[in-house]
Design brief:
- By secondary structure, the protein is mostly helical.
- The protein has helices spanning 6-14, 21-47, 52-71, 84-104, 107-114.
- The chain has one domain.
- It is built from five helices and no strands.
- Helix 1 packs across helix 4 and helix 2 packs antiparallel against helix 3.
- The radius of gyration is 15 Å and the shape is globular.
Length: 124
């Protein structure tokens, strides 16, 4: 990471790591699942819905696991994590800030149109 600021750094690298059509589809489907899981985790105790404390984190883990599989299809791998706090910070920022900005700016749509449904990256 550079001195440019964490969110700027993450967004600058985002386009290169989100070009594969399957990965794009996974992200558009699982980012809301992550957000719903986070909301459930926070609101569960407030609402007395203790089941949400299991369902919320489970939803977040499923979303992240699927996105991780999608990233394996990309030509440009994500920057390695520097530790557990970096994992949490980067994943939460991506789901709540960077991906919504990417979507709102038209980046996701441009990447979808530029990717071919037949394009497949083999990282075996």
């Amino acid at each position: 990471m550079t001195d440019e600021g964490f969110l700027t750094w993450q967004r600058r690298l985002y386009d290169d790591g989100h070009r594969d059509r399957v990965n794009l589809a996974i992200h558009i489907l699982t980012q809301p699942l992550f957000v719903a899981g986070l909301v459930a985790t926070v609101l569960g105790p407030i609402l007395g819905a203790w089941w949400m404390l299991g369902a919320g984190p489970a939803a977040m883990l499923v979303a992240i696991a699927l996105q991780g599989r999608g990233h394996r299809r990309e030509e440009v791998a994500p920057v390695p994590f520097r530790g557990p706090l970096d994992v949490v910070r980067r994943l939460v920022a991506e789901q709540l800030i960077t991906f919504p900005r990417y979507l709102a700016s038209g980046g996701w749509t441009r990447a979808w149109r530029a990717s071919s449904p037949d394009r497949r990256v083999d990282h075996a």
